[in-house]
Structures are given as structure tokens and as C-alpha cells.
Amino acid sequence: MFNFDFYNPTRIFFGKDRYDVIDKNIPSDAKVLITYGGGSAKKSGLIDKVKAALGSRKVYEFGGIEPNPHYETLLKTAEIVRNENIDFILAVGGGSVIDGTKFISLATYYNGDATDLLKFGFAPITSEVVKKVVPFGAVLTLPATGSEMNNGAVISYNHGKFPVMSALAFPKFSILDPTITFTLPKIQVANGVVDAFVHTTEQYITFPVDAKIQDRIAEGILQTLVEIGPTTVAEPENYDARANLVWSATMALNGIIGAGVPQDWATHMIGHELTALLGIDHGQTLAIILPALLEVRREQKRAKLLQYAERVWHITNGSEDEKIDLAIKKTREFFESLGIKTHLSEYGVEADKIQVIVEQLKAHGMTALSETQDITLDVSKKILEKAF
Ligand code: NZQ
Ligand code: ZN
């Protein structure tokens, strides 16, 4: 196992009707800004419930944080936070609203051009760079990204998607109420299952470092998603299935399974280009890329692919290659069983776009991806061709 530091200060409040914790976890004299997305939280009555829980605090609202949140929208909101002296931000939404709120929190008092904050990649932004942040909490409406309990955000700017990481960007608390997610369209639930699945594989299907706890938790998350995935898509109000999806998605990217192990974020990095260039949903981009990436990288990932085949899919017969083939086939079939297409061509994309995607990867410096930094642009191209 590699050396690691682990830090996660986010309080989680899980279960039905936990709105009472809002009052207890935000200072009583705080001026609060509620941030939300395109309106689903307004329509469902969730914003009204949250406002009621805030009692007599002075409350402001900012709706309109779009999926794949845009830098410009977030900067506008940061200005409101500054001008109104907001003390606490409450994000009500999915990954986009929570990520957007993280960026607002970091950008509000940043002394300089806030595009600087997009240039750190996976290197954490420290308190020497951003001296003051605005504390925030979250009410999660879409289980997928893990943003509710991690320190990352992905911000869209100028045809690119930029990771932003900082220990300053953990929510103070997050409310995870599975019933809030009952209103999600089926496709968003399916996207969420895939996102959680791929977050897990990217910290698990790499090379072995004898990290038994991390591996077994990862295998537990993957098996849970396989078990409840199709049910939670088909039966939105099945509380237990949805509760298990919510906690799987949080556990997949809150730092626990990634501690002390190699990580391969290539599926995400290639996927981000598909979203930025072609507007394909985040979860769908991962379903397109992951099976192809596992094919192309089967030699580098052989030992963990075999472990994945045996422990997650219970494949015990056949040669090593047959086991790996079957595990990749089952992965693809699982995504498809959720209603997600796994080939780029099925999204109305023409083959000539592959070269454009490769050029975008180059423009964004994504030239040495993977757990061993050896996915060059040529390898990414091969993966995209296989994914077509
Ligand atoms: O905007 P509204 O009207 O709320 O509608 C949203 C949006 O259209 C809708 N929705 C959310 N909750 C709902 C609901 N509709 C009905 N009922 C509800 N309860 O769902 C749509 C998608 O929402 P979005 O927040 O964009 O989805 P998701 O949670 O999948 O977030 C995707 C974003 O997270 C980033 C992605 O790149 C993408 O920008 N990621 C963030 C990560 C992180 N912070 O750690 C890691 C991930 O890998 C990911 O990259
Ligand atoms: Zn993701």
C-alpha cells in the first residue's frame, strides 16, 4: 500500500426528512445564499422546505447553475456573495450545483483573476492561494458524483472541463435524503449508477498494491451497484434500493477507497472532452469510454482485471483472457441494462470527430493519463476508436 494522508471533515446526515439539521448546522445569525440549478428543486417544493428550515435567517436565492456548471455563471454568483456579505451558502442540487458552489466559495474572495483557479488540475489549491472561503453545505438531489463529501469540483470554461481540488472545498455538511431523488428522470439515475461505478473502477482496476481494505470496499460498492442498479432505475420510489445507490455514490468518491492506491482517471478525462465538445451527459461518456479503455489496457491492468472478474462478476471458469473478456462484456451489458448506450456512434457522432477529441485532449494537456502516465494521445485515440 502507498503512503497516504486522509482528511474528510464533511458531516453526513442521511435519511428521510432531515431538514431540522439545517438549523443546527448554520449559525443562527448567518446571511444564507441558497444555490440551485434549472428549477427541479423549486418545482418539487424542496427549496420551500429548505427555506422553512432556515427560519428567520436572511435568505437569498440564486437559481440557474447549469449542468456542467459554467465559470461565468459562478463568477456572477460570487459577486452576489461578496456584495451581500453572505456568510453561508447552501447548495441544493446534484453534482453541478454542489461543484459550482465549491467554486463560488473559493472564487468569492480570491485576490486575482479567478481563471487562475482552473489551472491547478489535480494539485490542491491551498490556503496560501485562496486566503478566505465562504463556508457551504449541501442538500443532495442526485446520487452520482460524490461531490457532497469530497473536495473536488469540475468547472466548464471555454470548451473545456477543469478539475478544481482543495481541502478548503469540503462541504461543512451534506444532507442525503434518498426520497429527494425520487423525482429524477430515469436517465439521470442511470447516469448516476454509471458515474459511481466508474469512480470505483478508476481507483480499483489499476495495479495491485495489496490494499485489501480499499479493494474489498471497492468490490462491495461495485457489487451493490450491480445488484440495485436496474431496480433503482425501474422503481424510483423503492427507498431501500435508492438509499443504497445514494450511499454507494458517496462512498465511491469520498477518499476512502482511493487512499493509498494507484488511480487512473483516464476514463473521466477523455469523457470530459466528450461532454465539452459534444454535450453528452457525464455518466454516458463514462459508459462509452470505460469498456473500450479496459480492452486497450488489458495487459497493464491484467492482475486487477482478473481480480475484478473473479470477485465482482464471480467468473471462475476459462483462461485468463476469457475471464477478462467476459468481465468487460458484463460491464458493458450492465451499463446497457440501465438504458445507457455504450458506443460513441450511437450518440449521433461521426467518426471524424475522434481526431477533434484527440486535439482537445492535447490542448488541455491530457497527454500522459492513467495510473502510470502512459496513455499518450495515440493510446487515447485507440480507446476512442474502440469506443466508436
Ligand atoms: O438543474 P435542475 O433543474 O435541478 O435539473 C438537474 C439537471 O438537469 C436534474 N436533477 C437533479 N436532481 C434532480 C433533478 N431532476 C429531478 N429531480 C431531482 N431530484 O438532473 C440534471 C443533471 O444534474 P447534474 O447536477 O448536472 O448531474 P450530476 O450530479 O451527474 O453532476 C454532473 C457534474 O458533476 C461533475 C461532472 O463533470 C458534471 O459537471 N463531476 C463532479 C465530480 C466531483 N465533484 O467529485 C466528480 C464526477 O466525476 C464529475 O466529473
Ligand atoms: Zn464522474
What would you say this structure looks like, in words?
By secondary structure, this protein is of the alpha/beta class. The chain has 2 domains: about 10-180, Rossmann fold (3-Layer(aba) Sandwich); about 185-385, Dehydroquinate synthase-like, alpha domain, CATH 1.20.1090. Helices cover about 45% and strands about 10% of the residues. It has helices at about 20-25, 40-45, 45-55, 70-85, 95-105, 185-200, 210-235, 240-250, 265-280, 280-295, 300-310, 320-335, 355-365, 375-385; strands at about 10-15, 30-35, 60, 90-95, 135-140, 150-155, 160-165, 175. Strands 1-8-5-4-2-3 form a 6-stranded parallel sheet, sandwiched between helices. The chain has a two-stranded antiparallel ribbon with strand order 6-7. Helix 5 links the parallel strand 4 and strand 5. Helix 6 (about 185-200) runs parallel beside helix 8 and helix 6 runs parallel beside helix 10 (about 280-295). The chain is globular and about 65 Å long. It starts with 10 loop residues before the first strand and ends with a helix. Bound molecules: 5,6-dihydroxy-NADP (NZQ) and zinc ion (ZN). 5,6-dihydroxy-NADP binds next to helix 2, helix 5, strand 6 and helix 6.
